Amino acid sequence: MKKILFLVLIIANTIAAQNANDLFSSANDLYKNEKFEKAIERYKEIESQGLISSELYYNLGNSYYKLNKVGPSIYYFEKALKKNPLNEDVKNNLIFAKRLALDKIEELPKTVFQKFNINYLQQLSYNQWAIVIIVFSVLGSLLFLLFYFADTPFIKRFYFVTSSLSFILLITALIITFNQYSISKNNKEAIVFAEETEVRNAPTFNSEEVFTLHEGTKVLVLDAIDSWKKIKLADGKIGWIIADDIKLLSTF
């Protein structure tokens, strides 16, 4: 009975994957024929099945960009980058999409560590860093076994040093992975979807308006009360915005 259930699951997953591939190809054809709204519908069908990828988000971003929908295009390019930070096509198209946004916000100066983290460590997602951990753990274990069975002193010394180095790199990669995971979980980024929205100094409609934001601006969500979100901009400004006017990037 268990074998039959296992076989049924395999068949179901195969059919679902085939269906997703067919939808993706169909959506790509619609995109090539400039039927962007219908292409978005097909891509969204794949997304609703949980079969997400950097390529899917990238194509959604491109489709919305062709329709001049700034917020959704930036949103999906940012989602694509979170899945694959090394995707150069996404980075380039995100630059073009951001040029359509009305808000030009100057970022606060970053420390040397923050720059190093952004320019190097965050070039891999925490899932990709997890793969690095597995590679170093396998490599370290293999080198240690070679050290254990080696006869020549020089060879034993070589394998001991390289295995030790692998385990040091393993621990380093583990720390980086945990740090990247914490950043992804705690930094709740969002994109403004409303064409224009007022940010206030308190989570009430009769509070003072402190500044205005437009579609496509990225914000950091700090807190939430009822139907309001407390946000922070890259330049350090803080205020409260209606929750429905933004859309969270994080999957946590």
What does this structure look like?
The protein is of the alpha+beta class and 252 residues long. It has 3 domains: 1-100, Tetratricopeptide repeat domain (Serine Threonine Protein Phosphatase 5, Tetratricopeptide repeat), CATH 1.25.40.10; 112-186; 188-248, SH3 Domains (SH3 type barrels, Roll). The protein has 8 helices and 7 strands; from the N terminus they run H-H-H-H-H-H-H-H-E-E-E-E-E-E-E. The chain has helices at 2-32, 36-48, 54-66, 70-83, 88-98, 112-119, 126-149, 153-186, and strands at 188-192, 196-200, 209-214, 218-225, 228-232, 238-242, 246-248. Helix 4 (70-83) runs antiparallel to helix 5 and helix 7 packs antiparallel against helix 8 (153-186). It starts with a helix and ends with a strand.
Which consecutive residue ranges, at least 5 long each, have pLDDT under 50? Answer: 5-17
Briefly note the structural class of the backbone. alpha+beta
**Strand order in space, largest sheet:** 6-5-4-1-7
Output mean pLDDT. Answer: 89
How many individual β-strands?
Answer: 7
Radius of gyration: 23 Å
How many distinct helices?
8
Q: Describe the sheet with the most strands.
A: 5 strands, antiparallel
Strand content: 5-15%
**N-C termini distance:** 36 Å
The helix-strand sequence is: HHHHHHHHEEEEEEE
Share of residues in helices: 55-70%
Protein name: SH3b domain-containing protein
InterPro entries: SH3-like_bac-type, TPR-like_helical_dom_sf, TPR_rpt
TPR repeats: 54-87
Transmembrane segments: 129-149, 158-178
Main traits of this protein?
alpha+beta, 7 strands, 252 residues, 5-stranded antiparallel β-sheet, 8 helices
